[in-house]
């Protein structure tokens, strides 16, 4: 028997060496390799104890506690766990900041193709992005970017770490992309629900999300998963493989992984109302502004099937005596059906009687463009990871890691390229003869025209993010003066390349020239002779049959592009130990320092960025009809820019035991301070003071912490690539006249760090003897952020200076510029404030052999209640806006997640409920009915309906152990195929499920 085991071990080791060499080779390649979803251990069907909810794993715990925290100790059960909410790394320490732990078993049971989705479901995470968010965008650069937002304060105020270390940003805002993380080796994710700037520095205002990987994994494990929606789209394929072993008498540890994930996404539907593949919940719900403030009726009306009066699918005459004439795909005129029994006034106003301003209800909805928006971006993720560590001495290791990944996404922002408000000459040879005759009879020579431009096809945005991250470090423990001290020293270099390419999008000025056609010598040509000489091809926009030459002229094959390179270099030193024993226990301290350098450079095409910034040539030849300063595309006008800053900081943290006795329990005070010097904004301090008290009542702990947290301005806010816009009639209050001005949207290097005050206080019950396996916690939180960095409009910038409210804006403009054009630099300023508070509740219970059945029943629930979320712009004449309970946003009143799992040696069952409460469109509205409404104001506008329902989603799953090493599993998300609520613009993908029912199945293995 021993010889068989030895042979099996030798065979496994040989296979492991082969897999290790293969994966390390992949990691070394310049072509990034696969990034993938979730790491399910082979024994996930029989989970061990779960961690006490709302607590942080402590250091140097016994093996069973390590398993509770979601780690895989193997034969290294005495290895310490780093407390994410603190830098102190000594035995028995409990951080006062509440932390939610999501273990590998939880991640595996949820069976998502991306670990991001599992973590984003936690109630305290509000407003996270992902593949369902930013799908309507062309120019943001954040399509498909998976990033977390704690407390709803945004991804830029949530610090995401990998093994306690920073990760290079995948966007100029500085946020990393979770899709680029090595997900298969993640053993747990710690979510710190509170400020942690004193421990980790900038960005940890809302909290910290820390991914912990298994650096001592031994064996081979993998996962193969497929999925599809009930509508037959978003087909998913996920493949994961990891291997690890120890060599040289267990001193050399090698771990490698590679992952691949492909999710087809959900594209847009056709023009009109129908969404992709039969989804029927889109009703073109629109918030209509009547424009009447004091007639006893509400100013705003929420209505379904709203249809614009300014365009149709293949064209609509929108004013004058021919108003209401539309054109079919073949260019044949017909009378447009407005809906609401609307009748065009056929005068210069373009109004339609019986309809609302700008909209009718029902009628011909075929030209609606919103149904074309992608419900989910497609995503292809490739990732490879390798770690090698050598124990050069007992309790001392040097190590290096390599993480190379690539994420490609694609989305369709909208159907067509809608252009209302066009002026067409009646003599245009593409105008049907019947319409030319009608023009003559009516005595007009031109008319206003609007079209969805369905004939031009749909725009697609493609992003390609590539990350190369390398870490070298040393960590361990050394005896100093009779006590053990831990050290953690590392250098990290990360580079991220982001390429954005836009297909099938028009150049606005070429379009304008192409639609203005005339006949010369019997040939239809562009009217403008300069444009004609430069290659202008006439475009027929009456119907859906433009010439190929015209399409290529207005939409060249070489579309908008942006090429961004970001780098991050970090040197970090951290030490922790207990120098002395005091009356109630050892004094624990931690101290260290960090240097960080961030840099970015972005380059764009000359049609968007401007010819001076990006010399023309090749695929982007100079054209006299185009603006030399850029902004020529219909959308996607990317700009050039670059910038860098450096950070030097040092921190000190201490944990002071106060008392330790059977009579009054055990208590400690924890405090930390960090001084940071930014090359752009100078020195700033962060600190925290808190403590825990283990009551003499068994299992009860009281905790609380208050902190001063900071967020420094990011590269985008400091050095944003400039965008130029012409303002032809800008009001100058200093001279009481209108002037021509140039608006430059730029970064602001004078920005200061945001300052936050973060307070949490709570009580927890952990595993009492009278009910083993029970854990409950309640934590109140309050977060106030001052000097919030936010952009303000050009008119506000001038007014704030004119009224002497914000003098620093006076340097941002010159409206009487004798040396050149008048200009306003639209910048971000430290002007706004955010004030939010609420509480978190977590509970879990583990029941061994429930009702005498073999196995374990695990119950877990988490909930967050947002009491208020007030944003104050800081602008004169505005009131603070409370968005708690606004279901168009990210902060519903209540959000909870409940999970029930039963597992034994043969199978497991998984049930999950996700829910958030009913809400509204906005707390500023006054709801009233006709005849009862007060006067509507900008601060308190009236509305007839102000309600958006909450949602309940049920997920079901299970596993079957085919062998000791192989587990099959299946999962159904959104079992009831719950549709999202309707909204004024589109549904809120950060809150509502827009995909519908999803089926997943796969196989996990571990040898």
TrEMBL record:
GO terms for cellular component: cell outer membrane. Coiled coil: none annotated. Gene3D superfamilies: TonB-dependent receptor, beta-barrel domain, TonB-dependent receptor, plug domain. Residues 457-975 form the TonB-dependent receptor-like beta-barrel domain. Residues 94-208 form the TonB-dependent receptor plug domain. Pfam families: Plug, TonB_dep_Rec_b-barrel. SUPFAM superfamilies: Porins. Transmembrane segments: none annotated. The keyword Transport applies. It comes from Sphingomonas metalli. A motif (TonB C-terminal box) lies at residues 990-1007. Keywords: Cell outer membrane, Membrane, Receptor, Signal, TonB box, Transmembrane, Transmembrane beta strand, Transport. It is a multi-pass membrane protein. Belongs to the TonB-dependent receptor family. Residues 1-37 form the signal peptide. Residues 59-71 have a biased composition (Polar residues). It is found in: Cell outer membrane. It comes from the Bacteria. This is TonB-dependent receptor. Residues 40-77 are annotated as: Disordered.
